[in-house]
Design goal:
The protein has 305 residues and is α+β, with helices and mostly antiparallel strands. Helix 8 runs antiparallel to helix 9 and helix 9 packs antiparallel against helix 11.
Length: 305
């Protein structure tokens, strides 16, 4: 059983009855589910994940106004739910906040991940938010949300980056793929700088992974799950195998070029570049030229990272 299944079973066993019996008059104002940090919210948890932060528990999201009306009572009721379930023990809630489960204020929940109470309103806000926290904000499952306040933000975020932000970030990662993989890697190898070549390879892989997520307009998760998540993407998921092989490949430049060709082809397929070259720097600037907002287009290419 994975974490999200355990959470839902716990909610169905105890949470539904608690809400109906004690909060029937306001239950339509409480969103229920499991969203946030942790591999269980991504659906990637396994037996190894159970050595920390694995427990029966779920989230109850309410507005700040409702928190003042019945938040304390709701939290006390949640705290009194059984501490063990199906052989797993629930951790005690912290009285000073920071909990992943229990009663969470909608505005505070999104502020934690986004730095704002709802969907980012400016391009500057979008650029400032790490992709992993955006992914956490849209992960997991929502089982009930009659009010719709929590889901309204979630559903807007799930649409991905605004187009100009997506393109700017993609251009930045593409120019870094060119610099690290198509330019510096061969120079470091020719000089016998093996350590530097390893760093070039790692940089190329890191930016290539980010570019794959951006081409799918899906937020990249925390780095240890980036490869895993790539396998589920509809566009360029096949590069996961090549990028995994690259650090130990005998002919790294040749494999870099094979990966670059795949990116160049996809850029043209999506209509964001018309460059006939496999040099990724040419595609980075072609992608930049597709940006509509003049301010974003004129920002330094590296500001997309």
């Amino acid at each position: 059983m994975n974490g999200i299944e355990l959470a839902k079973k716990y909610y169905e066993a105890y949470g539904i009855a608690m809400l109906e019996e004690q909060f029937g008059n306001v239950s339509d104002r409480i969103a229920i589910g499991l969203v946030g940090e942790g591999s269980e919210c991504l659906g990637y948890d396994d037996a190894f994940s159970q050595d920390h932060d694995f427990e029966p528990g779920f989230c109850l999201w309410i507005t700040a106004a409702d928190e003042r009306k019945f938040g304390f009572k709701l939290e006390r009721a949640y705290t009194k739910l059984p501490k063990t379930f199906l052989g797993y023990t629930r951790s005690p809630l912290s009285p000073v906040g920071g909990n992943r489960h229990g009663v969470l204020v909608i505005e505070d929940f999104y502020r934690k991940f986004l730095g704002t109470e709802g969907v980012p309103e400016t391009f500057a806000q979008w650029f400032s938010i790490p992709s992993a926290t955006l992914r956490a904000a849209v992960s997991g499952q929502v089982w009930k949300d009659d009010l719709g306040a929590f889901s309204a933000v979630r559903e807007a975020l799930q649409k991905g980056y605004p187009r100009d932000v997506q393109l700017k970030k993609l251009a930045a990662h593409t120019i870094m793929m060119n610099q690290s993989g198509q330019y510096n890697l061969e120079r470091c190898l020719a000089r016998g700088e093996i350590g530097a070549a390893q760093l070039c390879t790692a940089e190329f892989v890191r930016h290539a992974i980010s570019a794959v997520y951006l081409l799918n307009n899906v937020y990249e998760p925390f780095y240890k799950w980036a490869y895993r998540g790539m396998r589920e993407l509809p566009v360029l998921s096949e590069l996961e195998e090549l990028l995994t092989a690259l650090p130990v490949a005998d002919d790294k430049p040749a494999l870099v070029e094979q990966i670059a060709v795949a990116f160049a082809r996809e850029f043209c397929n999506q209509g964001i570049s018309d460059s006939p070259s496999n040099a990724l720097c040419t595609h980075a600037y072609a992608i930049t030229n597709k940006i509509q907002d003049v301010h974003i287009r004129n920002m330094h290419v590296m500001e997309g990272i």
